C-alpha cells in the first residue's frame, strides 16, 4: 500500500482513507458539490414558480407528470449509455442540461409562463444528472473502496446543497428569481471540467477501457433481477412517502403565505414562499452536512448497510405519527427537516453503495431507471393519493399523515429485504 499523504491522513478523520486515495475522493466530492449547488440554486425558483402559479395541488400533479416524461427519457438515456463511451455520455448529458437553463432564462425574460414546464424539467434534471454522477463513482471504485470512500464523496453533495440553498437565500432578493438559472448553468459547466479530470485519473473498478456496456435495456435489467427490483420498490415507496410529505408542507406554507400577505407581513405570496423554502432547504442541508461529516462513515462501518437502511423509515414512522396528532406548520417543518436531512446524508450514501456489487451495465442503465422512473412512480402514486384525498375523501392534513404512516411501515419491510439481499450478493462477489 502506498504511503499516506497529509491529505489522506486529514481525510482519515472522517473515513478510512488509504494511501493515494484522498485526492481522487476529494475531486469526486468537489464534482458532486457543484452539481448539488446548482440544483439548490434553482430549487427555490422551482417552488416559487409552481406554487404561485397553481398551488400545492398543481405541484403534486406536476410531479406525477415527471413520471410520464421519464417513460421516454429513461429508455433514451439507456440507449445512449449502451452506445457511447462513458466520457462522451457524461459530457453530452451535462452540457444539454446547462444549455436548457440558458433557454429557460431567455423564455422567462420574454414573460413566457414557466411554472409547470420548469418544475417538470428540474425533477428530471436532478434525477438524471445526480444518478449519472453516482454511476460514474460506482464505476471508478471497487465495492471495498466505495464503502470506505463514499461518505467523503457524499459529503460534497451535502456541502453543495447547503451552499446552494444559502446562496439562493442571499441572492433571490437582490438578483431576482430568474437570474439564479444562469448561475446554476455556470456551475454545471464547471462541474463537467472536474468530471473529465477525475475520470482520466481513475480506471474503472471493473477494469477495461472506456467502452459502451451494450446489452439489454434498463427495464429488462431491473425486472429480471431480484436485487435490482427490490431496490426499485424501495425507492418507489421512499419517494411516495417523501412527496406526500412535501405536499403537506407546501399546503401549509401556501396557506401561511396568503395569511401573511393579508396581514401585511409580506409583499407577495411568491416572495414569502421563496424565502421560506430557501431557509428550509438551508437548515435541512446544514443538518445533513453535519451528519455526513461526523456520523455516516462511522454508522456504515459499525452497523453496516443493512441496518443503516432502516434508520430513515424509522424516523418517518415517528415524524408522521406526530404530524397525525398535531397537523401544524411548525410540526411538519421540523418533521420534514429531520426526514430530509437523514435522506440526503445517511440514506443517500447507503443507497448509492447498494450498486457497488453490480455490473457496469447495471450501474449505468438499471440505476438510471431506478433513480428516475421508479422514483417518479412514487410521485405518481403520491399524486393519486392527493387527488383522491382532496376531491373524494375530504382529507385533512392529519389524514394524509396517517396514510404516510402506513406507507412508512411498508418501507421498513422493503429496507429489511434489500439489506439481506445486499449482504448475500456482496458475500457472493
Report what the structure shows:
The protein is mainly alpha-helical and 429 residues long. It has a single domain, classed as Up-down Bundle (Growth Hormone, Chain: A), CATH 1.20.1250. Helices cover 83% and strands 0% of the residues. The protein is built from 13 helices and no strands. It has helices at 6-11, 22-81, 86-109, 115-140, 143-171, 179-201, 218-223, 226-262, 269-308, 311-325, 329-353, 360-391, 397-428. Helix 2 (22-81) crosses helix 4 and helix 8 (226-262) packs antiparallel against helix 13. The longest helix is centred in the first third of the chain and has 60 residues, at 22-81. It starts with 5 loop residues before the first helix and ends with a helix. The model has no long low-confidence stretch (mean pLDDT 85).
Count of β-strands: 0
Second-tier CATH architecture: Up-down Bundle
Structural class: mainly alpha
CATH superfamily: MFS general substrate transporter like domains
Number of helices: 13
Q: Uncertain regions: pLDDT < 50 for 5+ in a row?
A: none
User: What order do the helices and strands follow?
Assistant: HHHHHHHHHHHHH
Amino acid at each position: 500500500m502506498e504511503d499516506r499523504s497529509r491529505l489522506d491522513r486529514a481525510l482519515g478523520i472522517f473515513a478510512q482513507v488509504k494511501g493515494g486515495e484522498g485526492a481522487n475522493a476529494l475531486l469526486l466530492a468537489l464534482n458532486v458539490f457543484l452539481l448539488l449547488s446548482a440544483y439548490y440554486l434553482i430549487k427555490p425558483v422551482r417552488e416559487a414558480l409552481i406554487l404561485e402559479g397553481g398551488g400545492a395541488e398543481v405541484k403534486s400533479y406536476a410531479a406525477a407528470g415527471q413520471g410520464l416524461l421519464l417513460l421516454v427519457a429513461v429508455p433514451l438515456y439507456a440507449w445512449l449509455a449502451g452506445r457511447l463511451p462513458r466520457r462522451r455520455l457524461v459530457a453530452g448529458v451535462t452540457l444539454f442540461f446547462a444549455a436548457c437553463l440558458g433557454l429557460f432564462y431567455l423564455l422567462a425574460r420574454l414573460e413566457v409562463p414557466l411554472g409547470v414546464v420548469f418544475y417538470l424539467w428540474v425533477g428530471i434534471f436532478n434525477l438524471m444528472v445526480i444518478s449519472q454522477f453516482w454511476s460514474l463513482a460506482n464505476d471508478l471504485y471497487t465495492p471495498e473502496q466505495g464503502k470506505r470512500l463514499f461518505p467523503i464523496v457524499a459529503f460534497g453533495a451535502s456541502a453543495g446543497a447547503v451552499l446552494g440553498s444559502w446562496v439562493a437565500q442571499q441572492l433571490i432578493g437582490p438578483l431576482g428569481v430568474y437570474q439564479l438559472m444562469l448561475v446554476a448553468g455556470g456551475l454545471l459547466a464547471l462541474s463537467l471540467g472536474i468530471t473529465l479530470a477525475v475520470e482520466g485519473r481513475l480506471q474503472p473498478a471493473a477494469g477495461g477501457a472506456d467502452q459502451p456496456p451494450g446489452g439489454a435495456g434498463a427495464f429488462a435489467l431491473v425486472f429480471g433481477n431480484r436485487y435490482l427490483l427490490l431496490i426499485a420498490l424501495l425507492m418507489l415507496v421512499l419517494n411516495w412517502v417523501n412527496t406526500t410529505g412535501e405536499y403537506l408542507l407546501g399546503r401549509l406554507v401556501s396557506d401561511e403565505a396568503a395569511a401573511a400577505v393579508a396581514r401585511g407581513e409580506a409583499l407577495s405570496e411568491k416572495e414569502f414562499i421563496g424565502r421560506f423554502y430557501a431557509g428550509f432547504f438551508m437548515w435541512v442541508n446544514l443538518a445533513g452536512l453535519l451528519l455526513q461529516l461526523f456520523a455516516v462513515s462511522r454508522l456504515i462501518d459499525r452497523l453496516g448497510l443493512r441496518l443503516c437502511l432502516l434508520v430513515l423509515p424509522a424516523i418517518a414512522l415517528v415524524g408522521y405519527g406526530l404530524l397525525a396528532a398535531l397537523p401544524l406548520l411548525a410540526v411538519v417543518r421540523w418533521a420534514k427537516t429531520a426526514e430530509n436531512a437523514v435522506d440526503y446524508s445517511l440514506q443517500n450514501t447507503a443507497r448509492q453503495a447498494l450498486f457497488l456489487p453490480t455490473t457496469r451495465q447495471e450501474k449505468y442503465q438499471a440505476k438510471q431507471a431506478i433513480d428516475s422512473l421508479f422514483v417518479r412512480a412514487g410521485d405518481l402514486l403520491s399524486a393519486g393519493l392527493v387527488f383522491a384525498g382532496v376531491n373524494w375523501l375530504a382529507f385533512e392534513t392529519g389524514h394524509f399523515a396517517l396514510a404516510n404512516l402506513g406507507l412508512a411501515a411498508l418501507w421498513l419491510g422493503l429496507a429489511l429485504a434489500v439489506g439481506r439481499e445486499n449482504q448475500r450478493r456482496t458475500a457472493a462477489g
